[in-house]
Amino acid sequence: MSAARDVAYRCVMAVTDDDAYANLVMPGLIDQARLDGRDAAFATELAYGALRMRGLYDAIIGKASKRDPESLDPEVRAALWIGAHQVLAMRVPPHAAVSETVDTVRRERGQGAAKFANAIMRRVTEKTADAWLAVVAPGTSRASAAIRFSHPEWVVAELEKSLAADGRAGEIGALLEADNTAARVTLAARPGLADRDELARETGGEPGRWSPWAVGLASGRPGDLASVAEGRAAVQDEGSQVAAGALATARDVVAGERWLDMCAGPGGKAALLGAIAAQSGTHLDALELHPHRAGLVKNSVRAVPEGAVSVHVGDARGWGQDGAYQRIVLDAPCSGIGALRRRPESRWRRGPEDLTELVTLQRELLASAERLLAPGGLLAYITCSPVVAETRDVVAGSTLRQIDARAAVATLTGTEPSDWGTGPHVQMWPHAHGTDAMFVALLERPS
To answer: Residue 1 pLDDT > 70, yes or no?
Structure first.
């Protein structure tokens, strides 16, 4: 397993030193090391677990070393995270975890640092995970929960506020635990391009719980599937599918409608809506600010019949003709706090100060959407964050009329509107729905 541990270490260092994204770096590292399925899974769990749980492991390393973990050499700190994860969260014999950690530190920082790492790892192995939690995260305070579940304390505070606003006060522990459980891979069988049941048979997966296009996979590499390689299906969270689909199912589609995806990159929602548009005689403009992300959108919609989707590069805040679109999806740039299961490092990348800038951008984009929406038109405001300031508060400032999104979601999912809270928006949750914490509000311009 040494090669797998080396891959995990290099992934963690790329994320912490170079601001890389684990999900983008890891596949290349696995291919370079020629790891097989078992070793690739081990390396991925090591890296993602270390990155996700670094807050807890820093607290343990701090107690074990009597030093501020931030004062350690980055290479030593990363190796200790990986070592601690093996000892406390995986079925790795302590002697193997200690030995491999020491070897890594020796290679990267020399013999002196290796002796230090050896001493710390041996102290880490002296207690079980539960015993360490009793030391570093006693009681039930927010600060203890932040350490126990390895979330920044400000994120815990925002999630508590969001849960309470949604009638789910007291569910913070279940939500934080769900954030630390890797999400299963979910595919979207794009309407008219792939059949969900056939895709389930092809993959050995099973139909999703909510989306009529979703297939959940137990294992495997989605990119190896012909339907994914051809763009007829793609990896997409089930909550994301439901949020985008709600715009199309909220009312009957009339041929000739013009639709807009205002912030289209990387293209999952654009491809789903584009496939629906192709079936219904409508057209989708997919707009993306950044050229490289617009390229991702073009790739994502490659299987959609020609003429149904046009991809544009531009800033949605100053783009297009007033009243030009009957339906608009605004998947607004946000903190991403609702998608922490998928992005192990993301919880550590933002601070509370980022919310102010993001909310300003969200409000500006929503104002532009109001301008672009035709009389009688429908707008879906979506975020992968449940934070009240980014969701309810932004929508509350709109000049448009909010309609009950629960009805559209219920129609799409075969459920009852009452299953989706008190409305008028819909808030999904990892611990309750098995999806990212997607928020969707439907807004209408009066005719």
So the answer is: no
Q: By the 8 A CB rule, do 166 and 438 touch?
A: no
Examine the domain organization and report whether 243 and 369 are in the same domain: yes
Domain holding 159, by residue range, is 141-179
Least Cα distance to 382 among 268, 301, 277 occurs for 268
Given the structure tokens 């491809």, which residue do they identify?
Answer: 271
Count how many domains the chain has.
Answer: 4
Please report the pLDDT score of residue 401 as a whole number.
Answer: 97
Question: Could you confirm whether 384 is annotated as catalytic?
Answer: yes
CA atoms within a 13 Å half-sphere pointing along the CA-CB vector of 413? 27
Concatenated DSSP letters of 63-94: HHHTS-GGGS-HHHHHHHHHHHHHHHHS---H
Element (DSSP H or E) covering residue 33: helix 22-33
Statement to judge: residues 204 and 223 lie in one domain: yes
Mean pLDDT in residue range 85-90: 97
pLDDT at 40 over 60: yes
Q: Which of 11, 263, 334, 384 is catalytic?
A: 384
pTM as predicted: 0.95
CATH number of the domain enclosing 23: 1.10.940.10
305 vs 185: CA distance, rounded Å: 26
Neighbours of 277 (CB within 10 A): 25
